[in-house]
């Protein structure tokens, strides 16, 4: 009996499928004219409560006002954003799915290290307001006081200090680069690996490891528990002015910038639906410049700086190129 | 099967289960070793996998019963009251299997025929397997389950559910 | 220690914002209902209501969310006891004796025990938190990989108390579970056993796997029965019996205390949550109990031990969140997000500058636990009625809900497929007398075991003497071994007396099992 109904249902569902796909294939011009006419999904490839999730939720009311449609936040965590990215690429390029993500270095890293089935260029940035940098830090009551001290100790005996870091990350690349530049034998280091920034920060603040290399922004709530040794940025970082720049520590080293977080769409949407893309860019720009949104987000330690699509794309692609250059350090 | 002077009975089901587990473990060990031989990769996986394979060798003989031993073990249970229920157990096993198969069909068809249809069909099938035969109840209750779960979960989660009719 | 003037101010906040108290009952009910749905974890329940709380003022939002958290901490034990489906890993140990009790027709009492253990230890956890929030936070940060590895090993010792006819099969099942738990990318960035599937990069999803393994052994077999409990007389729902269970909890202060201490400490450690506390509390209680042989067969102490660790773990987790701004688990990560969305950043500076608010939040949680007593009794009274419904209605609905619950974790068919694959595995394991719970414990702890073992190795540079530099780890190992040795010593006499009887029992079981295993060929 069940077999019979199932076969029947198959027939019905086949018809249904055809009808649905017909609707999807509706002429794109028709949709562009009325865009947006229904709620827009914001795909966040991280779990609820992370930076991107909070950014999207805090920014949501201001962006909704500009777009005139409600936003729905869809958390798609997993596999270092690969699941969320693939999900975004699988959605129709109709402007009803946009991304709020740590575009760099996550998208390049999934491509370089996980053989993700997409290219870095498949994503186009609208605006990446949040820029993070690797911070080398130690526990506030730890014996090490400066970055030069770390280098000295490790030069004498590479196993004298333990180092906490997330493997296959911008932080890891920076750590290897700076030790290479200082001529430290990396194979003898005591490197402790953490599968995320959070655990690495806790280990640093709790003096479980002597030195931690990890994205600096997440340290802000724990500021009193750590001592910053060096931040891997070219110029003074607005949100952490007392962190010494890596350039000031006396070691000449190249470095990779940390996470760049913000708003993105698929390149397919930008190319096939230029009108919709323009609408989205204009809405994000207006919302980012809204004094009220700037004030609210600042209170929540979230960034609103407007860099625009060109500058954001450039920063993203530069980061991807640097990651590709140093990919061998990460493996 | 005869080995030496004894005749052995093989428990093929158990043999295939334990061999399946061992094969998975062995493959996992090879897969892990093919990624890297670094201690950072194999520290726990390798010893645990080897331990599991050792356990496999230890369990393997349990799949073979000496026939005379089995008969000796069997005779007292003939008086066991449980023995009478074996035929009904067989039909019970069939029921469980049928329910398992329906569950599998539902799981794999969710995205194909839509959540609503799959849930409706599974619900009706499961009711039938559990002994409900009245068509009206089959229809109405399954419909109720489908409506409540689809609309309930749609309100709870932000992920799109592929549905046919609802 | 407690700051009296801040405490008085906290009382002030509590009473000036009485309006926000109205959110306690709705929050508790939301938490209870959501977490009673198999597959929906505490974290998901909170993620679902987080957007709602954005439109409330700060204190109301926190009261609402923490009420959901408190309610969800208990809700998971209802399906665990009635149907042997743990709603989340934290109620896994509750199934051992809870389901056994309900099969004996003592589901009313079992739920009563669970509710009281949950609320009493929840209160105990928060009271302790009020006293030691700052020192606790400092200790928590110092807990390193070696200590965590010791805790994970302790969790694995639960296996010893699960019992199985064949030790070798139990060990194989546990090793297999551990290996399954390590699938995916490990903490050092190596990816194993994913078959090239991106969903497996983060490992096998534990909740669908756990429900699958247990569902096959219990849920599918319900198809052969008319009702969840076969005996007609025991299907009743009785307020008197629920209250009897509630009252009975008070007879085991030792179990409650041990569970609370284990729960608070483990709950406070970031990244562990309450999923391991219940296993350790159960194993410890069973090992030290005089009547340990009846554990797993419906001993109320098993239910109390498991639930007490879960509930008190909430307090510990909350301490880490408030004092350090670090999430102890997924649920507190969402609480932190809610704080931030109201422009408040929890952490050391928050606790220094806003101590009255911190106290007010803690006090409110104590109030919630007390309210949960009343709301919980009503909830279990309603939920127990499922016992009176024929399985032909319950079973399809539960299986559909569990499937959708596992879908809701990531919004992909991967969840339901995991559920089904593990249901098949669970069925086969059960049939050939492999302890399914050993596989579950392995899956739940495998990742933690590997991660912490690996970090300990990295930190020590491979030198085992490093453990001597970690007094905390040595203390944990010492407590573990002393407790083991004492139990062994204490039980020697008892064992000798029981040896003869046990041997006879074993022989009978073995024979019975041979007869039950249908052999082909």
What is the topology?
The complex is a heterotrimer of chains A (331), B (166) and C (521).
Chain A: H1 2-24, H2 28-34, E1 40-44, H3 51-67, E2 71-75, H4 82-90, E3 97-102, H5 103-114, E4 123-131, E5 134-139, H6 147-156, E6 162-165, H7 170-182, E7 190-193, H8 197-205, E8 211-215, E9 226-231, E10 260-266, H9 267-272, H10 274-289, H11 291-299, H12 308-325, H13 327-330
Parallel strand pairs in A: 1-2, 1-3, 6-7, 6-8
Antiparallel strand pairs in A: 3-10, 4-10, 5-8, 5-9
Helix pairs in contact in A: 3-10, 3-11, 5-12
Chain B: E1 2-3, E2 6-10, H1 12-35, H2 39-42, H3 45-59, E3 64-66, H4 67-77, H5 86-113, H6 115-129, H7 135-156
Antiparallel strand pairs in B: 1-2, 2-3
Helix pairs in contact in B: 1-3, 5-6, 6-7
Chain C: H1 4-16, H2 24-36, H3 42-53, H4 58-75, H5 77-83, H6 92-103, H7 107-142, H8 145-156, H9 158-162, H10 167-181, E1 184-185, E2 191-192, H11 206-218, H12 239-249, H13 253-268, H14 277-288, H15 300-324, H16 330-341, H17 348-353, H18 355-383, H19 391-410, H20 414-431, H21 436-460, H22 471-516
Antiparallel strand pairs in C: 1-2
Pfam families (chain C): TctA
Organism (chain C): Ancylobacter aquaticus
InterPro entries (chain C): DUF112_TM (IPR002823)
């Amino acid at each position: 009996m069940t077999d019979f109904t199932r076969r029947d249902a198959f027939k019905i569902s086949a018809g249904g499928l055809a009808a649905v796909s017909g609707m999807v294939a509706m002429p794109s011009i028709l949709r562009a004219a009325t865009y947006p006419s229904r709620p827009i999904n914001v795909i966040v490839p991280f779990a609820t409560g992370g930076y991107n999730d909070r950014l999207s939720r805090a920014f949501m009311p201001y962006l909704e006002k500009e777009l005139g449609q409600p936003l729905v936040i869809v958390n798609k965590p997993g596999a270092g954003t690969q699941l969320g990215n693939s999900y975004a690429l699988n959605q129709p390029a109709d402007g009803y799915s946009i991304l709020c993500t740590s575009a760099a270095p996550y998208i390049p890293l999934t491509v370089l290290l996980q053989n993700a089935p997409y290219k870095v260029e498949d994503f186009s940035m609208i605006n990446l307001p949040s820029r993070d940098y690797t911070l080398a830090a130690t526990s506030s009551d730890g014996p090490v006081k400066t970055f030069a001290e770390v280098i000295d100790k490790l030069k004498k005996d590479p196993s004298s200090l333990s180092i906490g870091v997330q493997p296959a990350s911008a932080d890891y690349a920076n750590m290897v680069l700076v030790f290479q530049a200082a001529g430290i034998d990396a194979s003898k280091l005591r490197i402790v690996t953490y599968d995320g920034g959070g655990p690495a920060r806790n280990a640093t603040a709790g003096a479980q490891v002597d030195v931690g290399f990890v994205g600096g922004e997440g340290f802000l709530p724990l500021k009193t528990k750590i001592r910053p040794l060096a931040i891997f940025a070219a110029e003074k970082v607005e949100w952490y002015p007392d962190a010494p720049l890596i350039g000031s520590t006396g070691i000449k080293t190249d470095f990779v910038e940390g996470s760049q977080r913000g708003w993105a769409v698929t390149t397919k949407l930008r190319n096939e639906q230029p009108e919709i893309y323009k609408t989205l860019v204009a809405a994000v720009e207006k919302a980012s410049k809204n004094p009220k949104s700037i004030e609210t987000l600042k209170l929540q330690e979230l960034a609103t700086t407007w860099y625009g699509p060109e500058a954001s794309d450039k920063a993203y692609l530069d980061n991807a190129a640097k990651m590709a250059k140093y990919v061998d350090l990460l493996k | 099967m005869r080995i030496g002077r004894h005749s052995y009975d093989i428990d093929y089901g158990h043999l295939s289960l334990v061999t399946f587990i061992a094969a998975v473990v062995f493959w996992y060990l090879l897969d892990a070793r093919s990624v890297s031989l670094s201690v950072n990769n194999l520290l726990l996986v390798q010893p645990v996998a080897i331990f599991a394979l050792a356990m496999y060798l230890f369990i393997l003989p349990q799949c073979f019963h000496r026939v005379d031993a089995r008969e000796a073990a069997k005779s007292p249970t003939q008086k066991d009251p449980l023995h009478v229920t074996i035929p009904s157990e067989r039909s019970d096993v069939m029921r469980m299997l049928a329910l398992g198969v329906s569950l599998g069909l539902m799981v794999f068809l969710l995205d194909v025929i839509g959540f609503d249809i799959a849930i409706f069909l599974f619900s009706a099938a499961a009711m039938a397997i559990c002994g409900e035969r009245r068509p009206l109840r089959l229809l109405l209750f399954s419909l109720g389950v489908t409506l409540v779960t689809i609309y309930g979960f749609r309100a709870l989660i932000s992920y799109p559910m592929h549905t046919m009719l609802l | 220690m407690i700051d009296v003037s801040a405490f008085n101010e906290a009382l002030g906040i509590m009473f000036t914002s009485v309006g926000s108290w109205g959110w306690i009952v709705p929050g508790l009910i939301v938490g209870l209902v959501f977490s009673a749905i198999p597959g929906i974890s505490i974290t998901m329940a909170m993620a679902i209501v987080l957007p709602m709380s954005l439109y409330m003022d700060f204190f109301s939002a926190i009261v609402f969310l923490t009420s959901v958290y408190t309610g969800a901490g208990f809700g998971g034990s209802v399906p665990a006891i009635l149907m042997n489906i743990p709603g989340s890993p934290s109620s896994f140990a509750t199934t051992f004796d809870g389901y056994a009790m309900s099969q004996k027709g003592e589901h009313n009492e079992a739920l009563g025990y669970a509710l009281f253990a949950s609320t009493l230890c929840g209160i105990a956890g928060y009271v302790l938190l009020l006293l030691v929030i700052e020192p606790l936070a400092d200790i928590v940060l110092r807990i390193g990989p070696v200590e965590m590895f010791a805790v994970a090993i302790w969790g694995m010792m639960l296996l010893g108390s699960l019992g199985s006819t064949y030790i070798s099969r139990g060990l194989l099942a546990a090793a297999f579970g551990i290996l399954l738990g390590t699938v995916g990318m490990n903490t050092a960035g190596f990816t194993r056993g994913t078959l090239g599937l991106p969903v497996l990069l983060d490992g096998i999803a534990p909740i669908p796997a756990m429900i699958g393994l247990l569902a096959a052994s219990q849920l599918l077999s319900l198809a052969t029965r008319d009702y969840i409990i076969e005996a007609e007389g025991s299907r009743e729902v009785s307020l008197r019996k629920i209250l009897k269970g509630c009252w009975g909890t008070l007879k085991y202060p030792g179990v409650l205390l041990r569970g609370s201490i284990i729960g608070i400490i483990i709950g406070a450690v970031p990244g562990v949550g309450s999923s391991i506390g219940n296993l350790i509390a159960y194993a410890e209680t069973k090992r030290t109990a005089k009547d340990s042989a009846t554990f797993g067969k419906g001993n109320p102490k098993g239910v109390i031990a498991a639930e007490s660790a879960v509930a008190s773990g909430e307090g510990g987790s909350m301490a880490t969140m408030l004092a350090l701004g670090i999430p102890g688990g997924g649920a507190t990560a969402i609480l932190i997000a809610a704080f931030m969305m109201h422009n408040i950043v929890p952490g050391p500076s928050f606790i220094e500058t806003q101590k009255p608010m911190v106290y007010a939040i803690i006090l409110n949680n104590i109030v919630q636990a007390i309210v949960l007593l009343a709301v919980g009794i009503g909830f279990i009274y309603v939920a127990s009625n499922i016992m009176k419904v024929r399985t032909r209605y319950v079973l399809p609905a539960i299986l559909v809900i569990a499937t959708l619950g596992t879908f809701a974790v990531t919004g992909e068919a991967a969840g339901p497929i995991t559920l089904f694959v593990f249901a098949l595995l669970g069925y086969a394991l059960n049939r050939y007398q492999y302890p399914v719970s050993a596989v579950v414990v392995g899956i739940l702890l495998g990742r933690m075991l590997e991660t912490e073992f690996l970090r300990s190795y990295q930190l020590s540079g491979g030198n085992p003497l490093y453990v001597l530099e970690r007094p905390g780890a040595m203390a944990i190992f010492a407590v573990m071994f002393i407790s083991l040795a004492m139990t062994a010593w204490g039980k020697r006499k008892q064992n000798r007396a029981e040896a003869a009887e046990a041997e006879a029992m074993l022989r009978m079981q073995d024979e019975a099992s041979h007869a039950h295993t249908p052999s082909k060929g």
